[in-house]
Fold:
Amino acid sequence: MRTVYFLIISMLIKDAFSAASDEDLWDMDKFIFGKRNINRCYRCWRRERINFEDGDINCKDPFNPDGVETLACDGPCSITYYKDKIIESWTRSCHPGCVEERDQDGYTECCDGDLCNDGDSTQTRDKTCYSCMYYVKANTKAGPPNCADPFDPSGLSTVVCNGYCATTYNSLGPQDKTWIRTCVPTWRDTKDQYGYTKTCQGSLCNTI
Structure:
């Protein structure tokens, strides 16, 4: 009797999943896994070079979600972009072990949220950055001292940023130092004997 009962239940579950739409399956997944970090991610790729194109044209920038596959993802979604003198490529997917990287040839960006890998890059998403400047020059000091190192966000201004947050430090000597924290439109990590500019992604990340 118990065997018959389980067979009936199994058949009902199979029929339910067979008849379910993608949206229904997504709801079932959320219900079954409860509070697990389940997102939906776009999954596609596009590759272009001289006289050659391959993959889904909607996957490139600017992104067009029409007809692009989605999948349930137990982790973050990702966007990977690469360009050199020969090839340019875009990949959007689920990436449970996603690590954000950026260099002169491209980037991998991670995001957490339903279908969040739909932008050209996360730099197009509004965020908030600390916005302040403090400098010391001879006997002159200006700006909030907590904008310098060690950093303390208490009372500092913030700005909405459609780009990246950044911290810039310059030193021409013990009595000539400047700290600037702000929003910048492009990624620009630099470092030399006089200081550095460190760019970051995410709200209020420019605390370094």
